Request: fold
Amino acid sequence: RKEVEQDPGPFNVPEGATVAFNCTYSNSASQSFFWYRQDCRKEPKLLMSVYSSGNEDGRFTAQLNRASQYISLLIRDSKLSDSATYLCVVKKQGTGRRALTFGSGTRLQVQP
Amino acid sequence: DGGITQSPKYLFRKEGQNVTLSCEQNLNHDAMYWYRQDPGQGLRLIYYSQIVNDFQKGDIAEGYSVSREKKESFPLTVTSAQKNPTAFYLCASSIQGRDTGELFFGEGSRLTVL
Reply:
């Protein structure tokens, strides 16, 4: 079983729609969680951290469920510019080797 | 402007040749990383360095080598021993000691072996 699993998609949604992605992780020792965004053939960039109580950043809401070991990303009022691959990233305690594990990403395509 | 610069962006290599990918950062970050990304897969860690003159193998180090002679530079050599080197290579850096998941990535180098 992969340490971090994501539905690869693609998720095809119309502009203005609300879309949600889930990501499950297998290591219960995981401590920190993040969503990165990666545009086609570009480098990943940090979108937002995921806090235990859930957090919002504009149209984006991230939530964590430690009991079920999953995190989610909700995007409201989708824009064409939201089209990208969203990577779930899980961090274990410490830094360096294997501290960060990347999921393979969920592709979102927002259509006009 | 601070950032990470990778070069070349595109590289073609014949089988049996070594190739070196450059990574330079002016963010004053201590830690630097090399990842490989293949279609449909997550980023996989090749090597990382937390301080000058020190580096550690990641999950897929076989067929690769690195050096860290300067804080700003972390070049990656893809050797002929790497059996499937065609991939997108990403260099990243982070602030050492900070408990954050934020990595700053370069724009990547796309290597194709002919």
